[in-house]
Amino acid sequence: MTMTMATATAAADNGETTAAMITKQSAADEINQKKSRIQVSNTKKPLFFYVNLAKRYLQQHQEIELSALGMAITTVVTITEILKNNGLVKEKSIVTSTVGMKDANKGRTIQKARIEIVLEKSDKFDSVMHPSDNTNNTSATNAAATTNTNNNNNAESNEKKQ
Question: CA 37, 42, 43, 47 torsion: positive or negative?
Fold first, then answer.
């Protein structure tokens, strides 16, 4: 959350304080982070739904946040490990906490474990997601070279026969 001097000067010219500009920037960051947050449940969707959703979010955002409560924490950890092992992400931060929730049956507050894992794109993200870009060019080149070699061999054998 850095502000350039030009931004601070423009804010001052418009009658806004630097604190107001930082507050607006923080609000914008919060909105952007909410757009790239995936709240995981272990009862509503299968594991690979969340893995594929995370891949799609990473195509649109530089980083994503996976969060879960209670028994869904293991699902978030599994999703993170799948993405890391495929070379798509790097862990940026992991935060654990407890959250007080109202128990509907007993009417009392219970504590639930919560995890938030922020993942950022790896340097290899694009090459891992789109490996066909490199292999198609290589395959086409190899196919052309094989065709040329076969044509040359056929021409030589035809000359020997005559």
Answer: positive
Alpha-carbon dihedral 102, 117, 119, 32, rounded to 10 degrees: 30
The model carries a pTM of: 0.62
CA-CA distance, 42 to 65, in Å (whole number)? 17
Residue ranges per domain, the chain? Answer: 36-125
Q: Return the ∠ at Cα 72 (arms to 79 and 67), rounded to 5°.
A: 65
pLDDT of 24-78, one tens digit each? 444 545 555 567 999 999 888 999 999 999 999 999 999 999 999 999 999 999 9
For tokens 């947050």, name the residue. 37
CATH of 36-125, one of 3.30.110.20, 3.40.30.10, 2.60.120.260, 3.40.50.2000: 3.30.110.20
Q: How far apart are CA 106 and CA 110, in angstroms?
A: 10
